[in-house]
């Protein structure tokens, strides 16, 4: 029979070590060799269990876990290791501190950012004269659009607003660390192209394109083929499985979360492109229902 975790396994000392470093203003880090002592586990038992996990097919725990160390950069690997020995309580403890965010929480964060961006688009009053001046200066629609978006929708400001909104109403043991980790997760989503700046402002871009076409700085986009036969909004509704259903903020968000749980690359290795399409569809529809 597989060997079970020792009953007195505890993440209290490990959690306190992270807390002390965070309160001292330092990025937290733990040496892998420290973990048996911090978890109050016999070293021989600890090593045997890790090798057994690898033989059982655990992709996140193995001999590599015995060397090096852990930090915020690979906290997911640390959580997998802690759960092996201490069970689900390990993840729960790090989540309460704000050190780790579960997959559903990450989806909630991504949706929060998209909602913040959608609200910014909804509340924005198009500066037509300014955009006309940009078109005259650059003589190029794409460059003028990029500059306009950067001036009126700076990414740094959107990230900060989304992080503040996500953290509001949540109580973390280490609030400053949690806020930094939320911001870091959003930046990670952009690095991994789950979120893409070019897909955030579809509704705004259409208004800018219409003005550029009217002023002769862009060509009208070709009509959709008969095979497609749908407008961008119709395609977005189809992608989010909203056809024939009332479009409300709550239902839009629920459909977004449901589909992202299916196609997120952490769950579906082939799902990146579909995730990008889902985010783009949400960005197009959300300004009309953001409230």
Cα-to-Cα separation, first versus last residue: 55 Å
Low-confidence sequence ranges:
1-5, 223-227
**Overall mean confidence score, pLDDT:** 88
* Number of structural units classed as domains: 2
Widest sheet, order of strands: 1-2
Number of helices: 14
Gyration radius, in Å? 24 Å
Characterize the biggest β-sheet.
Answer: 2 strands, antiparallel
Number of DSSP-assigned strands:
2
- The helix-and-strand class reads mainly alpha
The amount of beta strand, in percent, is under 5%
Helix content: 55-70%
Blueprint (SSEs and pairs):
Elements: H1 12-23, E1 29-31, H2 35-38, H3 43-55, E2 69-71, H4 75-86, H5 89-97, H6 103-123, H7 128-138, H8 141-152, H9 155-167, H10 175-191, H11 202-214, H12 232-239, H13 249-263, H14 272-289
Antiparallel strand pairs: 1-2
Question: How do you describe this structure in short?
Answer:
The protein is mainly alpha-helical.
Please give a handful of descriptors for the protein shown:
mainly alpha, single chain, about 290 residues, about 60% helix, 2 domains, two-stranded antiparallel sheet, disordered N terminus
Model description:
The chain is mostly helical and 291 residues long. The chain has 2 domains: 85 residues, no CATH class; 187 residues, no CATH class. 61% of the residues lie in helices and 2% in strands. It has 14 helices and 2 strands. A two-stranded antiparallel sheet has the order 1-2. α7 crosses α8, α9 packs across α10 and α12 packs across α14. The longest helix is centred in the middle third of the chain and has 21 residues. It is elongated and about 75 Å long. The N terminus is likely disordered.
């Amino acid at each position: 029979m597989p060997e079970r975790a020792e009953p007195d396994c505890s993440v209290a000392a490990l959690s306190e070590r992270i807390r002390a470093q965070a309160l001292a203003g330092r990025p937290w880090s733990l040496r892998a060799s420290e973990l048996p002592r911090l978890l109050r586990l016999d070293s021989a038992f600890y090593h045997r269990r890790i090798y057994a996990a690898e033989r059982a097919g655990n992709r996140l725990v193995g001999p590599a876990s015995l060397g090096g160390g852990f930090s915020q950069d690979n906290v997911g690997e640390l959580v997998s290791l802690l759960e092996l020995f201490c069970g689900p309580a390990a993840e729960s403890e790090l989540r309460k501190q704000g050190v780790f965010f579960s997959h559903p929480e990450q989806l909630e964060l991504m949706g929060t950012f998209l909602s913040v961006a959608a609200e910014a688009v909804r509340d924005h009053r198009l500066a037509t004269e300014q955009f006309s001046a940009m078109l005259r200066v650059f003589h190029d629609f794409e460059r003028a659009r990029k500059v306009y978006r950067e001036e009126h929708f700076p990414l740094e400001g959107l990230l900060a607003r989304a992080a503040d909104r996500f953290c509001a109403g949540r109580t973390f043991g280490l609030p400053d660390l949690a806020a930094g980790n939320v911001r870091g997760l959003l930046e990670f989503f952009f690095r991994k192209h789950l979120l893409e700046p070019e897909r955030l402002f579809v509704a705004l871009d259409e208004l800018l394109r219409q003005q550029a076409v009217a002023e002769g700085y862009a060509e009208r986009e070709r009509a959709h083929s008969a095979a497609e036969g749908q407008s961008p909004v119709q395609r977005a509704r189809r992608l989010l499985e909203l056809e024939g259903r009332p479009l409300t903020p709550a239902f839009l968000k629920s459909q977004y979360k449901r589909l992202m749980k299916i196609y997120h690359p952490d769950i579906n290795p082939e799902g990146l492109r579909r995730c990008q399409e889902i985010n783009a569809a949400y960005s197009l529809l959300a300004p009309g229902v953001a409230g």
